Amino acid sequence: MEILMSVTTGVLFMIGTYMILSRNLLRIILGTSLLTHGVHLLLLTMSRLKTGVAPIWSEDIGAYVDPLPQALILTSIVINFGVTAFFFVLAYRAYQENKTDDMEQLRGGDDE
Amino acid sequence: MSNLTIIPLLIPLTTGALLVFFRNQRIWLRVISLISVFLNVAVSLYLAYQVYHKGIFTLNMGGWAPPYGIVFVADMFAMILVVTTTIIGAACLIYAFATVEEEKERHYFYVFYQFLLVGVIGSFMTGDIFNLFVCFEVMLISSYALIVLGGKKRQLRESLKYLLINIVSSAMFVTSIAYLYGVTGTLNMAHLSVRVAEAGQGGMMTLVAILFLFVFGMKAGLFLFFWLPGSYTVPSPVVTALFGALLTKVGIYAIIRTFTLIFYHDPGITHTFIGILAALTMLLGVIGALAYRDVNRILVYNIVAGVGFIVFGLAIANQSSLEGAIYYLTHDMVAKALLFLLGGIITAAAGTDKLSKMGGMIKEYPLIGWLFLLTTISLVGVPPLSGFIGKLLIVQGGLEGGWYWTTGISLLMSLLVLLSLIRVFLQVFWSDNLHRVKPPQPLKLNAGLVTPVLGLGLLVILIGVCAQWLYPYVSMAAEVLMKPELYIEAVLKE
After folding, report:
1. Which of A69, B192, B224, B320 is least surrounded by CB atoms within 10 angstroms?
2. Is 80 exceeded by the pLDDT of residue B279?
3. How far is A48 from chain B (nearest CA, A)?
4. Would you state the pLDDT for residue B355?
5. What radius of gyration, in Å, describes the C-alpha atoms of chain B?
6. Distance from CA of residue B103 to its chain's centroid?
């Protein structure tokens, strides 16, 4: 299972990087989103996937799943959700002002 | 264990939340934020004084003992930076009163300002590496808002890139935390230090260390500074001053903290690598500063050169170089804030940022001119001023540690910084430029513009003159960096 998760993480990283490197702004934003999903899966995999039951205390259970990565992922998801939403709004505003979503044309020079 | 530890963090946090409700009352916005920043200066000075006498302060959030809960740690290094941050926060706020448009004020400028301070101070004081990520994000999200506030074409365009760079490096940050957690099974920085020391810093650990260096280097503008000149030149001068003085320094702080507390076992690889990056950063920074002909870009490239120099102090990693790095970090925060505030006045007074269209301003603005010269010679490290001690200690440490080449580069960098800034000074203030373009209305210097630059200018002199009195504090901070067990003992004492 860990191997499958690692491969998935790798694939997500790969697609994310590819999309970030493209010229279209929307693709870039979706790319960052995929990249972060990859990171979250990596975080989950890093603490071993299933080593026990859910971390609710009870006397007759010995092994628990490590709850910490899930807390971390939750925090990271919330932050990423906010930032992505902001990024979309910013992209829309920038598109309205600059009349383009092509990063090649948003390069900008010293001639302004 | 004391609740006092997080008061410097709570004051801007509550103020920021409170200010949301005063959106349309400009007077209240200003009064409340002013009281808050000065209160915070007083509180952090008091806390620093307490730390000096009683040792490191910690606070376990929610009563969870480390390594399980999040812990906030006020050691001397963090406190020196917190005090400097609050002072700069106060100076820039007064400058903001005089320069920020009403439109921006109504769109929560002061709210984001306070939250930016929360993020910066939180990053300095946290003792948990994931919490460091959260504080980074608090700081970055406020900075996204501040950089784009105003919504000009160019601002929007550069904000996109700034946002993208930071999202990617934040993703890398969480990746490195994931690897670190996978290897060590803890997130508390003191506990991490213990675990890494027990298990030894093998290849895997060094790899994680380099990943962290990449992440923090991106934020600090260490070698990976390609995003910095574009983004830092678009917002209003007060925001640039705040970013230049605080944001990159948080990255430097994180590099220094992780590489003195956690990854200090294999300096042959990590510290040599950091040293090379620092040397390249210094060189590329001054080349940039010499290459451009507009004031903003010259000043922004000077940030980069400064970053290289401070991180070089870490790469040497002996007592005197770390003292020098702390000293120079403090000086650089104050001097860069001052430099950008002056730069803001200069560009506003000239109505342009092109050097070729400026000249002869010493007649109209003598005070600004002399303050600019003062900042320049202080950045170069002329003795009675603040830059001297830090430079002296780092150079001394570099020669002790056998870093002859890099020390040479750092001295060359000082000269070139002098050249780049003195060129601005000569052109803007002394030259009889025939092509000078005068703005339709001359800028009136009011108290809001002059007070902060005078205050910071005085501070630049005082940090240099009172070095003897400040030295015990800096020495104490460097001692904790040199001996991680002091930090560990204070955090994990129970």
Report:
1. B224
2. yes
3. 9
4. 83
5. 21
6. 28
Position B108: which residue type? Y
Mean pLDDT by 10-residue block, N- to C-terminus, for chain A (112 residues)?
A: 91 95 92 95 85 75 82 93 94 88 74 48
As a whole number of angstroms, the distance between CA B173 and CA B184 comes to 16
Residue-wise pLDDT tens digits, B248-278: 999 999 999 999 999 988 888 899 999 999 9
For residue A58 the two structure tokens come to 């009870």
Residue B438 has pLDDT above 80, yes or no: no
Number of independent structural domains in chain B: 1
Break chain A into its structural domains and give their ranges: 2-50+63-98
pLDDT of residue B202: 83
Between these two residues, B371 and A54, which has the higher pLDDT value? B371
Which domain range does residue B28 map to?
3-491
Buried b / exposed e over B31-66, threshold 16 CB at 10 Å, is ebbeebbebbbebbbebbebbeeeebbbbbeeeeeb
Task: Report CB contact under 8 Å: A90, B148.
Answer: yes
State the average pLDDT over residues B445-469: 90
Q: What is the pLDDT of residue B105?
A: 84
By a Cβ cutoff of 8 Å, what residues of chain A touch chain B?
Answer: 20, 25, 28, 32, 35-36, 39-40, 42-43, 46-47, 68-69, 72, 75-76, 79, 82-83, 86-87, 90-91, 93-94, 97-98, 106, 108, 110, 112
What is the crossing angle of helices B270-291 and B404-425, to 10°? 20
Helix or strand or coil: residue A64?
strand
Whole-number pLDDT of residue B494: 58
CATH architecture of A2-50+63-98: Orthogonal Bundle (1.10)
Does this model's pTM top 0.90? My answer is: yes
